What does this fold into?
Amino acid sequence: MGRLQVTWTRASALALTALVAAYVTHISAQEPAAEKIQAVAYTQKGNPPTGPNQVVIEHDLGLTTHTIYRPANLRSKAPLLVWGEGGCAKNGLTFPEYLSEIASYGFVIVADGPPVQNAGGPGGAKGGPGGPGGAKGGP
It folds into this structure.
């Protein structure tokens, strides 16, 4: 191995070490994940979910345009359901009883739209064109 190649290898290793150290510092300086996730205070209407798990509805500040429904005692691996509200609605609380029922059986659900409380309509949320976060009316 030539002297130039050894110098280049050492410089590359030093640069890689500095990059990893900067990344670790950046990650440790970020706020803890628990502070980025907020529980949504929503009271279910009607009967509680029938599955074996209690359900938690959350809003992750790192995923601001979505609402998360999940079992309270989440396992390391769980099936994922991605839910779109339909009708251009952008409210994660449009169908909370239905999504909570699914989550009570162990599914993690990521619903389109942040949780908007007391917007009217089914589940306490109003969706569709012209609703909160929905498409605005035409001409």
Notes: The mean pLDDT is 75. The radius of gyration is 22 Å. The beta strands are 37-39, 55-60, 66-71, 80-83, 108-112. The longest helix spans residues 3-29.
